[in-house]
Design a protein that fits this description.
Layout (H helix, E strand, L loop, with lengths): L3 E3 L5 H4 L4 E2 L6 E2 L12 E4 L1 E3 L4 E3 L3 E5 L1 H4 L12 E4 L9 E9 L17 E5 L4 E2 L23 E6 L3 E18 L4 E13 L14 E4 L4 E8 L6 E2 L18 E2 L3 E5 H8 L1 E3 L2
Parallel strand pairs: 1-13, 2-11
Antiparallel strand pairs: 1-16, 3-8, 4-7, 4-20, 5-6, 7-10, 8-9, 9-10, 12-13, 12-15, 13-14, 14-19, 15-16, 16-19, 17-18
């Protein structure tokens, strides 16, 4: 299949400055001049403090992609890795809202036996920065689905910085795909990803939607958008059983346009030891 591209190139509501943060709005690392991305949602720690013998949940974290919240030209997190809202590439005023805390280390060596599974990062929200548990046109997130609970052809949606609210259908839950990262001039292979196709002829995602939260029709978190085809490049899949495709396609070798690609949110949460903020 042709290469997918990460989505960090609008919706007026998402790209403006917000005094109270919400999911689905523009935000990115302050060092990424000219770039834009999306803040997914809010999470808290979900790990045991062995000294205190209790679960720590005192800090609130923002979630997005590693290529949105960090500078992939550097391996280490540094003190100036601040998250600004809106993103550096937006016009108008912006402010520091969080500090990068942890990111997934992406593998660019092309080893298909050791693929990436998540492109994600969390940032600790600054003191005094308010947030509300809401995503525009979606509302509050009501839990999450583990990867094995997500059903093929189920309806899903997202709200992102560029295309706002869009609906799609889960076309695959075990997609392997190469993604081109322009900031490094390299490609990375990912496996076990969700592939989402739009419910109409419009794009499910476009540049700037990276980091948007993928949710089910019952407002449960499913995945983290990180790549897609917003330029109508064709995804071609051979050897697909047309019986399983039903009304999505009508030929054995379907051509899927305007697709989105997402990590499993349960894998992201497990990696960073976080839980949804309540």
């Amino acid at each position: 299949m042709p290469r997918a591209y990460f989505l960090a190139t609008a919706c007026d509501e998402a790209r403006r400055n917000h005094e109270v943060l919400k999911g689905g709005i523009s935000g990115a690392n302050s060092n990424l001049s000219g770039e834009v991305g999306t803040i997914a949602y809010f999470f808290r720690s979900n790990f045991i403090d062995k000294a205190a013998q209790l679960f720590r949940n005192d800090h609130v974290y923002l979630l997005s992609n590693a290529h949105v919240f960090s500078d992939l030209s550097r391996d280490q997190i540094e003190g100036h890795d601040m998250i600004v809202q809106p993103s550096p590439g937006e016009s108008g005023q912006r402010r520091n809202v969080a500090a990068l805390y942890k990111k997934a280390n992406l593998n660019f060596d092309g080893d298909i036996e050791n693929p990436n599974t998540i492109d994600a990062a969390i940032a600790k929200i600054n003191l005094g920065v308010e947030h509300t548990l809401e995503i525009p046109h979606i509302g509050k997130i009501a839990g999450f689905l583990k990867k094995e609970q997500v059903e093929l052809q189920s309806v899903c949606s997202k709200f992102g910085r560029t295309t706002g609210y869009t609906q799609g259908i889960i076309f695959s839950i075990y997609l392997s795909i190469w993604v081109k990262y322009s900031i490094r001039g390299e490609e990375a292979i990912f496996s076990d990803q969700f592939l989402i196709v739009p419910t109409d002829s419009s794009s499910f995602v476009k540049g700037g939607d990276s980091g948007a939260l993928l949710v089910s029709d019952k407002n449960r978190a499913i995945g983290l958008i990180f790549a897609g085809d917003g330029e109508r490049t064709l995804f071609e899949s051979s050897g697909v059983d047309p019986v399983h495709l039903q009304n999505l396609v009508s030929v054995v070798t379907p051509k899927i346009e305007n697709y989105g690609v997402a990590n499993s949110i349960s894998e992201v949460m497990s990696c960073f030891k976080i839980k949804l903020d309540k």
